[in-house]
Write a structure and sequence with these properties.
Layout lengths: L1 H14 L4 E2 H7 L9 H20 L9 E2 L8 H9 L5 H6 L1 H16 L1 H7 L5
Parallel strand pairs: 1-2
């Protein structure tokens, strides 16, 4: 499932603008998860966190920045707390910085729209 989510988000960053929602991600990547079930929602959060941590550690942009959390300004607290764990700054400060998410999304699109990066890393496991 991690590979399917990662591949979908890479394709999304290359071919679409804006962000995707949890529901769209579930449908388009054919994950079969139900967001009404707490543990299934938690599982998707874990998958997105795992993918972003692996990408960050490999020197690539965090793909989960493209997934917008319903009812929030873009990302939930868990995303910003993950960024803090990765050393990007204090999570509350990052959440208040209106350019932080925008910059992450631009970096992600620029990286994955580069054909050389796509060819080299799209199939990468980490």
């Amino acid at each position: 499932m991690i590979g399917r989510v990662r591949s979908h988000l890479i394709r999304f960053s290359r071919n679409q603008i804006g962000t995707t929602s949890y529901l769209n991600l579930i449908q388009e990547a054919e994950l079969g998860l139900n967001m009404e079930i707490t543990h299934e929602k938690a599982r998707l959060n874990e998958i997105l966190t795992d993918i972003s941590e692996q990408e960050f550690q490999a020197g690539r942009p965090m793909l989960s920045c493209l997934v917008k959390v319903k009812g929030s300004k873009g990302q939930g607290d868990n995303f910003f707390k993950m960024c803090e764990r990765l050393g990007l700054g204090e999570w509350r400060t990052l959440k208040q910085d209106e350019n932080f998410l925008k910059d992450l999304r631009q970096q992600c699109r620029a990286f994955w729209q580069d054909d050389a990066n796509f060819e080299k890393f799209a199939k990468a496991k980490s």
